[in-house]
Amino acid sequence: MMYPLKPLSNDAIPAALAKAERYRLLNEPEQAESICEDILAADPANREAVVILLLALTDRFPHSDGHLVSRAQELAAHLLTPYERAYFGGLVAERRGRALLERGGPGRAFSAGDWLREAMELYELAEGHGPHGNDEARLRWNACARVLNAHPELAAGEYERTAPLMLE
Fold first, then answer.
1. Are residues 156 and 87 in the same domain?
2. Which residue among 3, 52, 100, 116 has its CA within the 20 to 30 Å range from the CA of 61?
3. 0.85 exceeded by the pTM?
């Protein structure tokens, strides 16, 4: 038996957004995801719900088999501005790389390095589209560079992307 979902009223969206963010901060990303899905069912263009959902999905990367990555990439690709698409696409790649590095195992270091380098490329792209005085993308780029510098096993020689970015 399937239970029909109860729709969220538009008046409840601001409080629901605050609750979704709170659940993320309490390390309960599944709850945040559920709330964001309800918000997006009521208001499909709600940017804040999309961003919280994307971040909640990336919060689960360390414990996921990777199936959440494409959903997070899709959300990033549909953000409105080139800056947001590149920045949040970079965040998805960075968090995937960090999750793979954390797990370890055969071939994971090389793959983690690929994801981190992809994140850096996207952060550089975001830098070119960001508002003056916003160095968020530069800070994230530096964080990736520090991880790569601290882990020489992540080096891949001449890095070449083998698949196109879904965000381009």
1. yes
2. 3
3. yes
